[in-house]
């Protein structure tokens, strides 16, 4: 690595920002000067930064996915040479946009990730945005949400499948609501989106950070973890929008087929999410069932039978 301790100011520009720390390793330049090579991540991507260890003391107890604030200069090479690196303050963290801190680098389906961030940042309800921050930007949950499949052997059974399925359900549920109840308020539409997005959030307890099934996957139903995964966010809504908190709890505990918690749906949003969930799963399974077979006729996937009519034969001559 070429020498980095002298960077001409005319070849650089100033830089500052707050990120998640997602990687670090010690490297030496040609003059044997030790540098800490850092990967700083957010919802837009990564920044690679170099910290001169002979000039700057690294703060203690900054770990993986912690919030950090860094500043310095950016060279023409694209690398940052830092003159400041520290743990981010509470004000710096709270000033970040909703989901801004989610590391895009961890998403196996970046195009779906981008749609998620754009949609969430377009929400008008500050309460719902604050709620999503408290649920999805938790250091102990975010990697599982981005990496996990929606199932092991069923629908969306691939890394990032949980994210893609969750966004499908959220968007399709809102589409049904708008079709059937066009006069429904914007706030109710946004609540429907949030409820659909997090309907499977309990699965972040049944997969590890790399998306592999853990002990809870065998021992517990993911539905049992849904309210637990949202507890911090629901506590916030209880104080600022209590009806939204009750609405979300009701949707998640009654929307499943058969009303697993024994409570029947008392609001149409619960039915939209239930139906959108089933449609998303069936659509993905039908695609898988015919992936290696004829484009028409019957096919099986596990115990499920799928049929595609020979459309050309049904068209008028």
Structure write-up:
Helix content is 39%, strand content 19%. The protein is of the alpha+beta class and 317 residues long. The protein has 2 domains: 9-93, Nucleic acid-binding proteins (OB fold (Dihydrolipoamide Acetyltransferase, E2P)), CATH 2.40.50.140; 97-298, Hypothetical protein af1432 (Orthogonal Bundle), CATH 1.10.3210. The strands form 2 sheets. The chain has a 5-stranded mixed barrel. Strands 6-7 form a two-stranded antiparallel sheet. Strand 1 (12-28) and strand 2 form a beta hairpin. The mean pLDDT is 88.
Rg from Cα: 23 Å
**Total beta-strand segments:** 7
Largest sheet: 5 strands, mixed, barrel
Q: Which spans have pLDDT < 50 for at least 5 consecutive residues?
A: none
List the total number of helices.
12
For the record, what CATH class of the largest domain applies?
Answer: Mainly Alpha
- Round the mean pLDDT to the nearest integer and report it: 88
Global shape: globular
User: What portion of residues is helical?
Assistant: 25-40%
Kindly report the spatial arrangement of strands forming the biggest sheet.
1-2-3-5-4
Roughly how many Å apart are the termini?
A: 70 Å
CATH topology of the largest domain: Hypothetical protein af1432
Oligomer: single chain
Number of domains: 2
Measured by DSSP, the beta-strand proportion falls in 15-25%
Q: Identify the CATH architecture of the largest domain.
A: Orthogonal Bundle
Would you tell me the structural class of the helices and strands? Answer: alpha+beta
């Amino acid at each position: 690595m070429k020498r980095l301790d002298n960077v001409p100011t005319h070849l650089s520009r100033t830089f500052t920002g707050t990120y998640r720390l997602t990687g670090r390793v010690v490297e030496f330049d040609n003059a044997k000067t030790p540098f800490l090579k850092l990967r700083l991540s957010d919802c837009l991507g990564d920044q690679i930064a170099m910290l001169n260890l002979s000039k700057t003391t690294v703060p203690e107890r900054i770990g993986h996915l912690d919030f950090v604030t860094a500043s310095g200069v950016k060279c023409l090479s694209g690398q940052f040479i830092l003159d400041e690196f520290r743990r981010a303050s509470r004000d710096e963290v709270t000033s970040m946009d909703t989901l801004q801190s989610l590391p895009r680098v961890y998403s196996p389906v970046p195009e779906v990730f981008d749609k998620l961030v754009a949609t969430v940042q377009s929400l008008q309800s500050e309460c719902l945005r604050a709620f999503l921050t408290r649920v999805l930007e938790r250091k102990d949950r975010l990697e599982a949400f981005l990496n996990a499949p929606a199932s092991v052997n069923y629908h969306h059974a691939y890394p990032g499948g949980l994210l893609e399925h969750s966004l499908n359900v959220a968007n399709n549920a809102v589409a049904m609501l708008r079709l059937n109840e066009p006069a429904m308020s914007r706030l109710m539409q946004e609540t429907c989106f949030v409820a659909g997005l997090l309907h499977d959030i309990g699965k972040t307890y049944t997969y590890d950070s790399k998306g592999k099934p853990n002990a809870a996957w065998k021992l517990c139903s993911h539905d049992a973890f849904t309210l637990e995964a949202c507890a911090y966010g629901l506590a916030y809504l209880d104080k600022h929008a209590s009806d939204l908190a009750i609405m979300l709890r009701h949707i998640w505990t009654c929307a499943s087929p058969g009303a697993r918690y024994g409570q029947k749906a008392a609001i149409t949003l619960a039915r939209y999410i239930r139906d959108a969930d089933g449609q998303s799963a069936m659509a993905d399974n039908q695609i898988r069932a015919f992936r290696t077979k004829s484009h028409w006729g019957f096919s099986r996937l596990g115990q499920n039978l799928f049929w595609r009519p020979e459309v050309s034969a049904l068209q008028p001559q």
